[in-house]
Amino acid sequence: MIRENNKLFALDTPTTSYLFQVNETGHLEHLHYGRKFQLQAGDLNALEDKHRHTIGDEPAYDEDHPTLFLENLPMEYSTEGKGDYRVPMVVVDHDGGFTTLDFIYQNHLITAGKQTIPHQGAQAYGSVQNCMSLRVELRDSQLPIFLVLSYTVFEDSDVILRFSQLINKTDHHIYIRKLDSLQLDLSDANWDLVTFNGAWARERIMERAHLRHGSHVNESRSGLSSSDHNPLLLLARPDATEKQGEVIGYNLIYSGNHKEEVEVSPFGKTRLVGGINESAFLWKLPSGSTFTSPEAILTYSTEGFEGVSTRFHRFVNEHIVRGVWKWRERPVLCNSWEAAYFDFDENKLLNLARSAAALGAELFVVDDGWFGSRNDDTSSLGDWFPSPQKIPSGLSALSDKIHNLGMMFGLWIEPEMVNKESQLYLKHPDWVIAIPGRKPSVGRHQYILDLTRKEVRDYLYDAIGKVFSEADVNYVKWDCNRLFTDLYTVNDEVRNMGEFPHRYVLGLYELLDRFTKAFPNVLFEGCASGGQRFDLGMLCYVQQIWCSDNTDALDRIAIQEGTSYGYPLSAIGCHVSTAPNHQTLRMTSLETRANIAFFGAFGYEMDLGALSREEKQQVREQIAFFKQFRAVFQYGTFHRNRHGNITQWTVVSQDKRTLLVLWNQERMTVNGPNDILLVPEAEDGALYEVLSRPQELELASLGARVARKVAPLTNLSKNPNATVSASMEHYLVSGGLLKYAGIKLPEQFLGCGFDADSRILGDMGGRIYLIRKQ
Ligand code: DGJ
């Protein structure tokens, strides 16, 4: 709901209020973002910032307002040159380096639904039933340069979306140095900044630090939203926990260079601005034209981090992900990458696919290596036709065979890239991004195609679209394996090189849009060397994203958990891979690897054909179990209950009758305290049955001595792959007990003493508990 009364704007979601007003000078003064309350007469006066005194050497707005200091006014936007020295939201060079602007309220419009801006790429969507929008137009006090601030309120997810536009109605061009999507000014600085940082194969690790005076920056300059700093950002009260306390969530619907800056002013106010990174950005805005920022979203919760992530999950599933895969369970996949890398032919693929089908997989994905003469990463990107050596009968024959096995057929592509060793490069060396006269940098032996150019996009669409149609492709993994350098284009639609990074992103979105519209039934998975482009921009086109090239179960706990703060589990690609793990060389049991990977878009990325009979049986049962509860894993509400060494993840079904709890210890603690299964999500007064998921113990991994104790009749040297069933747990307990006291779990095996109920876990050992309301 959005209301306006006497230039006071109230944007309400079911639990939050966002309030601002047009003040006496025509600026938009921010009044409140937080918990919803009923406004009473008199509240406005109390909410306004007081400015009755002069402040030392601070410049006042003008002679008529000698005590109004923009530096200390909470605002909906900010510019340079009028005494607000905090980080600005808008910087426009409108006359040879002259940047002073002063935007004053002109008019506003409240409408049902959400505005869509043509040619703007990734945008959220909503209907007149579930959202409402406000557009406020401001004009510079002197020049016909307009700033438009747009707001959309999403009732069903407690989210407020914002974007901004600059309109140049002068008779000459101007340059936008910076136009953020939003600005949020908060009255105090008692916040922790929470960001999701990392690197390749170590993406989105949560970090939390208390704000101090000055600026804190969260940004990417590599051309991708990046694994270094995801655009997702939270501001949390220092006492906020997973389940309690005030937390504000922010995310940007954008896949390129982004920048969020949180600044605590000398007066102890906090400003958040976020949008396209101004680094390498300079947009020439001709007379009569408009520039639109990407969209950004905000949410707020008093129920801690969980409140924010639940709202974001709902929003992403309802207003970002679109098409036939919206709210739809994702197929269990088998991907060829870690099973074979580049080393395969049709027979090998078919053998892998047969093994996968026999174990219950639903989608077979041929990853990198199927096209041109690609046998390693030095060649063939750009040549989008099947390798005659590896797939002599062609892709459509292969696809038919996969379909005949009862599986969907999926294909890996990396459209944005080209190797020098390729037919495409021979024909179109000028399609590569490079600066004339300079040698371009190279990453993974590949160069980036200039997606700002229509002929490049057309080639990719035609060449790859032909493959999709001919081979009846049902799933596509869209990869991107290098960062940007040498920003330059010969495209004369790009008026200056500072437009290039953003125009590239718009070109990418246009191409994604064409593919997703032309192949509406295809399930698209984003990927960029794993999770370099895990963002809401991509999720407007692809329905899930490969979370990380690191498939190690222990590392995945932090990576998936970090990702879950902003993104729903249905969008997080999680695969079981082999042990020792290819990235970390760590050994973890097959059951643990599956337990962690269940919490997402689940699949296998290992040579399933090479598994022992016992391992195959484990995989078969894992897949059957996952399919039974897939809707809960992917679309249930997700809860993080970490305590020390123990990761506890819970998903709760929509009807709240089924809970699945992962209890996993990272490190075995000898003679530690009793393990207790406490499930805060249970309902007091209800009765629950609690069952551990049947799991197998790989005897060899226990060592001969313990294996003899556990399975005295098994001869390990004769059967090195032998397993025994892990102890089962079964309880019938009250919800109150689960919620407030917890189940004291049987002891872990510690080297002495053993019986059928002992839990043998070791490092990275755990269980999934299936909890059902009776
Ligand atoms: C990077 C991806 O993250 C991997 O999963 C795999 O698809 C490789 N690229 C293939 O080159």
What is the element layout, followed by pairings?
Elements: E1 2-5, E2 8-12, E3 16-22, E4 28-35, H1 43-47, E5 90-93, E6 103-112, E7 131-140, E8 145-154, E9 159-168, E10 174-186, E11 192-199, E12 202-210, E13 214-219, E14 229-236, E15 247-253, E16 258-264, E17 270-276, E18 283-285, E19 290-292, E20 295-301, H2 304-320, E21 333-335, H3 337-340, H4 346-359, E22 363-366, H5 395-404, E23 408-413, E24 417-419, H6 423-427, E25 446-448, H7 454-470, E26 475-478, H8 500-518, E27 523-526, H9 536-539, E28 544-546, H10 553-564, E29 572-576, H11 590-597, E30 601-604, H12 613-635, E31 637-640, E32 646-652, E33 658-665, E34 676-677, E35 687-692, E36 696-698, H13 703-710, E37 723-725, E38 730-734, H14 735-741, E39 743-744, E40 765-773
Bound molecules: (2R,3S,4R,5S)-2-(hydroxymethyl)piperidine-3,4,5-triol (DGJ).
